[in-house]
Structure formats: structure tokens, C-alpha cells
Amino acid sequence: MNKKTIKVEKKYLLIPVAGSKGWFLPVDEMQFLGVYRDGELLEEHEVILSKEPRCWACLYLERYEGQELELRLEGGDESLLELVEASDVLRDADTLYREPTRPLAHFTPMHGFMNDPNGLFYYNGQYHLFAQLNPYGFGVGNTHWLHAVSSDLVHWEEMPYALIPDESGRMYSGGGVVDVENTSGLGKDGVPPVFLFYTAAGSKSRWSRGRYFEMAMAYSTDGGRTYQKYEGNPIVPHIAFMNRDPKVVWEPEGKNWVMFIFLDNCRYQLLYSKDLLHWEEGQVIPLHTAAECPDLFCLPLDGNPDEMRWVLWGSTDTYMVGRFQGRKFVPETEAIPGPIHQICSAYSDTAHSPGGYAAQTFTGLPEGRVVQLSWIRTRVGEGPFSSCMSVPNEIKLVTTEQGPRLTLWPAKEVELLREESFSFVDRGLEELERIPAQYLGEAMDMTFRFSVRPGKLLAMSIRDVLMVYDPESGRLLLPSGAYEIGPVGDTLELRVVTDRCSVEIYANGGLFHTSIATVLDPAKIQVTPVMVDPGTAVDLEIHKLKSMWD
User: Fold this and answer.
1) 112-410: which CATH number, 3.90.1300.10, 3.90.1150.10, 2.115.10.20, 3.40.50.2300?
2) How would you list the strands of the sheet with 55-60, edge to edge?
3) What predicted TM-score, i.e. pTM, was given to this entire model?
4) CB under 8 Å to 271, separation ≥6 — which residues?
5) Do residues 396 and 509 touch, judged by C-beta distance below 8 A?
6) Torsions phi, psi of 28, nearest 5?
7) What is the distance between the alpha carbons of residues 168 and 146, in angstroms, rounded to a whole number?
8) Is the peptide bond before 234 cis (omega within 30 degrees of 0)?
9) Strand-pair category, 385-386 with 112-123
10) Superfamily of segment(s) 413-545
């Protein structure tokens, strides 16, 4: 074990993090960086330090200002501890958010590996985004809660981490709400408390070995800027297997707070509370083809406020529509599978794998809007970060021949990133190859309207992602799979949002949506017709997107 003492007078502790391949840090290379005060362990993180790091990650020191801390490094080359240094300036401050590998129109973390969105809420004119984050590596581990804020859903400012691992485990997924009426009694000076509900992932770290997964909570009394963990944790003790991922919302008819959690084997459970502190178990609901990361939200059917419905959502975009009758959820549909049917597909390392996973909606949005973000597992092997969020998608519930169904469509705020635009009407499909170069960019928002002819396939490629529509079967063939998008009449409309390492596709008015993680290649921004039939015409709108970091 190597040790060093620092007096906290700087903003950051800079940590030289090695690059890694795969989802998990190699056990045989693992090192443990501990932060101690007077012999008490305050933080412990799994790291692989390097003299030639992929990035210099940062540990925020502000909460320890003026204190004397001892750093300890165990495992591997312990002399590398000498590289760890305190600073007021990030090592990559001059290039941060301007890296050639960083998506332009999709949120990415400053440093480290990001996955599931968590705790999304809106309060006092700001959107708050949280997400699973390993700040000190490029695979799963060290799970913190990233925190970023925005006033418009597309330009984000990253804040210090909201939650960091402790003796109860890593900080796994959950939800966030503003307790407007102060039902908890934890509000202060007229400011309503803000709650983050998370999974204390016991046994997932050396520090928490032997502990069960439990539901826990942290709260803020300064409008959601900083958080303290509740002294009464866990608020929901272990129930079954890896019970996890509490999503919490207010159900106005029953005047209950409702918690929706994953249990095991495609089983979820509802819990109820009057004060956000004490919870009672309710019904267990199977949601076939779904696992972990539930979402729960309410919206009007066909925009009618007298026909409100609740949606239970699982990580694979599988969902169920129904109503609450008191403390019972009554489904009106079976489980409706999304484009991703298997949890393993979200963890694929292959090119053109399904990218969207673990979606979550914001609570507290004005005007009854329902807006969702999902995690896109990108395959960026360079730069200080890995993975990104989807563009924000607005959700609506509409009546179809099959019953009520959700539509997803890019939120109107995405248009704030548009700059140069180009369009043409009723042109031959082959003219897609002649789009002026100035209107093509590394990030684009495009809408195609194709004429559909019986027996004639439509095919084009964007960022090397082949898209083929078969009008006979009503299926859209993508590298990630074949999807039924339903009848479209004589016109197929596709909206496609592309970025440096992702393609998001919307069809049939948003009844179909999927995300695809692509191989990073800035040169492959062209739109290419693959099968050209002389009778096929297309209308096109294309908007080049500027960087959200500008």
C-alpha cells in the first residue's frame, strides 16, 4: 500500500486513468484508491492508473475544503499514486467538449463511462439530468450519479457528482421528484425538498461486500443543487434477488406517492407512500421481455385530459398501458414489446448494435409534457468519455387499431441546434447522392418522405447504416434487426437524427423508434441510395446540427 497526505486547498483531485476494453475492468489489473480522514474511509474507487492515461479524471474536493486527507493506493504499481495531484484546473480544460470523437447533439459526460439515465426532473426553470457514471474508468464500476442541468434540454452544464458510492454499495439507478407540498416534512425555509431515490447496490464493491440490494434516498434542500443521504436508509429493505431501480411519481387520484421497482425475472412491483419516507408493498406485475430500470408516467389518450392513462415501462422499451384504481394498477393492454427484446442487446460490442436502453422520463414537466431520454451505448474507444444519451423524445399516447400505443418523436427543443438547411420535393431517389456537401454534417436532423410502390423495396444508407423498407411485409430492415412498422399507405416517412456515433430512426408518426450505435467515422456522413427504382420519388428536409457545447 502506498500513501500520501494532502491539505485540501484545490478544487479537483486529478487521476490518470488508463483506457480499457470491454464492459468490466480487468480484475487482475484492478487497483483501489481510498480517501481517508483521521483513519476513516470516506471514498474507495476501483481504478487502473497509468503513466500514459486515456484521460485525467477528476474527483471533486470541494466538500473536503480545508481538511487533511490521506490517499491510499492498493494493488498493481502502487508508485503510480505519486501521479495523482490536486489542481484548480482540469488537465484537458483546453480541449474538453471539443474532442473529435464527442457527439455534437447528444449529451456525454465530461469524463468516464456513462450508462442509464436516472432521476430526471424539472424544477424552477431547469431540467436536471442524472445518470450512472464511472468517472475513473471506461467500463461498469464505481457507480456514481452524474448530475447536469439545462434550461432548454439540449445545452447542458455538468455539476459535481450528486451521489458517490459508500459502505452500502455502488449508487445504482432510480428516480427523482420534487416534493412540492412538502409531504415529507424535510423542506427548509419554504424551499420544497428534492428527492433522489436510488439502489444501494450492496455486494457490488469491496467496501460493501456481503450486503443486499436495498432502496435508499438522498434529498436536497437547496433546489436540487446538492444532496445528502437520508439517515433512515434503507427506506425499502431487500425484497427479492436484485430488487432495484426505484422510479417514484405522484398519483393524484389516490393521493399517493407510487414507487415502481424491478424485482427479478421480468417481475416488477408497486409500492405506496404518503410521505416519501415510509413505504408499503403493493402488487407484483409481470412485464414480459423487460428487465430492470422501470419507468412510470401518466399522459392523456389522444390528448384528451379526461382520458388519462398510466404507462409501466421496462428497460427494453417494453410497456403496458392501464389505470390506477386506488392502490391497484389495472392493465388495459398486454405487455407491448419495444425494438429491443433482450437485455444482452444493450450490452453488445458489435457495430450497428441496438443502442437505446433504460429510458426514463422527466417528472414535474410543465403543460403535462412527457419527455424521455435513453442511454445509447456508443463504441467510442478514444477521448475522455464513453456512451451518450439520446436526443430528448416527447411521448404521446394515441389510439390505433391494435389499441392504445405510444409515439416517440424528437422534442421541439432539438430544433434549437439546427443551422444550415436544405430541401427538395418529388425528386428521384438517386438524387440523394447529389445533396450539396455544405448541408451534410457530422450531426443532422433529416426527414424523408418516400413514395411506396407495391413490390418495390426502398433502400438507403446513412452513416453506413443500411435501411431497407419492404412494403409487402411492412417491415423495416436494419443492421440491428427487422421491425414491423405497420401500414404506411403510399408514403413512408422516416425521420433520422444522426451524430458522430449514433443513428436514431423514427417511422409511422413515431409509433416506431429505435437507436443504433454506429462505428465512429467522421468521413461517413453521406446519404446513399442503395436500390434505385426509376419510379421512386422522395421529398427531403435536412438540417445540419451545430454542437450543443458551443
Assistant:
1) 2.115.10.20
2) 55-60, 12-17, 85-87
3) 0.96
4) 236, 258, 259, 260, 261, 279, 280, 281, 282
5) no
6) -75, -10
7) 18
8) yes
9) parallel
10) Exo-inulinase; domain 1 (2.60.120.560)
Sheet holding 31-37, edge to edge: 2-7, 68-74, 31-37, 40-47
What's the burial of 301, exposed, middle or buried (CB within 10 Å: 0-12/13-18/19+)?
middle
> Both ends of the chain: CA-CA distance in Å?
44
With contact defined as beta carbons under 8 Å apart, do 313 and 261 qualify? no
Q: Residues in the chain, how many? A: 550
What DSSP assignment string belongs to 472-521? Answer: TTTEEEETTEEEE----TTEEEEEEEEETTEEEEEEGGGTEEEEEE----
On the question of a common fold for 112-410 and 413-545, the answer reads no
Nearest CA among 545, 427, 438, 449 for reference residue 506: 449
Residue 387 grid cell: 456512451
* Dihedrals phi, psi of 438, to nearest 5 degrees: -65, -20
Burial class (CB in 10 A: 0-12, 13-18, 19+), 287: buried
Domain spans, the chain: 2-87, 112-410, 413-545
Q: Is 117 helix (H, G, I), strand (E, B) or coil?
A: strand
In tens digits, what is the pLDDT along the chain, a chain of 550 residues?
999 999 999 999 999 999 877 777 788 889 999 999 999 999 999 999 999 999 999 999 999 999 999 999 999 999 999 999 999 999 999 999 999 989 999 999 999 999 999 999 999 999 999 999 999 999 889 999 999 999 999 999 999 999 999 999 999 999 999 999 999 999 999 999 999 999 999 999 999 999 999 999 999 999 999 999 999 999 999 999 889 999 999 999 999 999 999 999 999 999 999 999 999 999 999 998 888 999 999 999 999 999 999 999 999 899 999 999 999 999 999 999 886 544 444 455 555 556 689 999 999 999 999 999 999 988 666 889 989 999 999 999 999 999 999 999 999 999 999 999 999 999 888 888 888 888 899 999 999 999 988 888 899 999 889 999 998 899 999 988 888 887 678 899 999 999 998 999 999 999 999 998 887 776 677 788 887 677 788 999 999 999 999 8
Q: Which residues are part of the catalytic machinery?
A: 116
Pairing of strands 527-531, 537-545: unpaired
What distance in Å separates the CA atoms of residue 18 and residue 205, rounded to the nearest whole number? 20
What are the DSSP calls for 377-421, one per residue?
-----SSSEE-EEPPPEEEEEEEETTEEEEEEEE-GGGGGGEEEE
DSSP string, 238-268: --STT-EEEEEEEETTTTEEEEEEEEETTEE
